[in-house]
Inverse folding.
């Protein structure tokens, strides 16, 4: 059993850490306060080849693999989780389905610019009536004269406003349930495609989340992704990978909470000594550090399994569940250690809590992760 990262993974981790701490962390509070999408950071990340990490060289990638990508998600999210989710949603569930299920032509056309960071991608599964019940999709796609005609709404779509391409699910065979759902590649500039004003969210305020409306959107027949009727399974498979990156985002936020709380505890004096000398604070920090480390191990292992081509549905759900709950608990404890200051915008820990909460919801709630794990146990 070898727990060490490869030399190139260590190099990538260090490079992304330097970039994130030097260029992103100093502006993260402003991005959050202004709710400003970090376009200039996205461009710098593209120049550093970060969008290319999980994809093979045949499709504009660097071939470094999913673990390398997960290390990058963690480091970026440690500085700014809004940027982390923008990056993760683009790579894993936005571009991922085309990379996994696309034809050679589709991959050249879409994965290459996405891996090069020239185009952002989004993933359109959720609908007003289809959230945890992903099979409840109402959007329809009907074949007409060699074109698919798509009608429906998708909600809570990360990157919707900035994406050049959106992968969506739609019903192609009504009455067949999950087996009647297919996946499609929808270019953002299609006629009839529109995006609502972004949601006002509790956290992740610098990330873009909006609703997509498709009103008689026509796309070529060959923009069907994979086989007809297999969209539901393809999306669940893409989410297996996406959930690992939500785990990595969570580890990044949890680490940031621990870093901030530890620094503060070593500066703050009460009753004549540093609060880090009180056992009540030490035990909190010890529990936080333990949980962060265990969450990280679970996330890295799930990514490693994916890189090995081994099954990872169960491990990805476990990693996401444990890491996201760790992120929330760690941020809450960090606020407690900061006391009154932690409840203000003067320190970043309140942002960590607001950002962390989404990790227990997006790409499958904690309840859905427990359901996936229970099914994997054979329940
Ligand atoms: N990979 C591939 N196929 C999978 C799969 C996976 N991880 N999980 C399930 N499937 C397959 C099943 O094997 C089944 O295939 P058959 O019908 O051929 O046997 C099919 O998909 C349907 O599976 P199931 O009956 O388990 O579907 P359910 O409707 O009961 O839903 C859950 C399963 C709840 C786990 C699924 O809907 C889910 O993950 N929901 C949450 C969606 C989500 O994360 N939403 C967040 C928004 S996206 S950012």
């Amino acid at each position: 059993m070898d727990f060490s990262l490869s030399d190139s993974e260590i190099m990538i981790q260090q490079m992304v850490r330097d970039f994130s701490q030097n260029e992103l962390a100093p502006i993260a509070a402003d991005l959050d306060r202004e709710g400003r999408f970090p376009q200039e950071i996205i461009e710098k990340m593209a120049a550093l080849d970060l969008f290319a990490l999980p994809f093979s060289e045949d499709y504009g990638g660097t071939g470094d693999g999913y673990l390398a990508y997960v290390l990058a998600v963690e480091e970026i999210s440690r500085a700014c989780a809004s940027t982390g989710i923008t990056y993760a949603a683009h790579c894993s569930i936005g571009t991922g389905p085309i990379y996994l299920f696309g034809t050679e032509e589709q991959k050249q056309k879409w994965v290459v610019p996405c891996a090069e960071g020239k185009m952002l991608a989004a993933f359109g599964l959720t609908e007003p009536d289809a959230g945890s019940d992903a099979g409840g999709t109402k959007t329809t796609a009907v074949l007409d004269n060699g074109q698919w005609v798509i009608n429906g709404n998708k909600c809570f779509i990360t990157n919707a406003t900035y994406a050049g391409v959106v992968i969506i699910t739609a019903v192609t065979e009504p009455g067949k349930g999950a087996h009647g759902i297919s996946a499609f590649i929808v270019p953002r500039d299609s006629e009839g495609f529109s995006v609502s004003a972004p949601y006002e969210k509790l956290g992740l305020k610098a990330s873009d989340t909006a609703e997509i409306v498709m009103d008689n959107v026509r796309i070529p027949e060959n923009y069907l992704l994979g086989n007809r009727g297999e969209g539901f399974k393809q999306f669940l498979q893409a989410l297996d990978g996406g959930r690992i990156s939500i785990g990595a985002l969570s580890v990044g936020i949890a680490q940031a909470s621990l870093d901030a709380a530890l620094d503060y505890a070593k500066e703050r004096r009460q009753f004549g000594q540093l609060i880090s000398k009180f056992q009540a604070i030490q035990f909190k920090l010890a529990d936080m550090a333990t949980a962060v480390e265990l969450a990280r191990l679970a996330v890295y292992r799930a990514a490693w399994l994916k890189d090995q081509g081994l099954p990872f549905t169960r491990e990805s759900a476990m990693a996401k569940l444990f890491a996201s709950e760790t992120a929330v608990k760690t941020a809450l404890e960090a606020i407690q250690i900061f006391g009154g200051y932690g409840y203000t915008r003067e320190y970043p820990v309140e942002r960590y809590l607001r950002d962390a909460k989404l990790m227990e919801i997006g790409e499958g709630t904690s309840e859905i992760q427990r359901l996936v794990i229970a099914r994997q146990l054979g329940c």
Notes: The two ends are 30 Å apart (CA to CA). The CA atoms of residues 42 and 117 lie 8 Å apart.
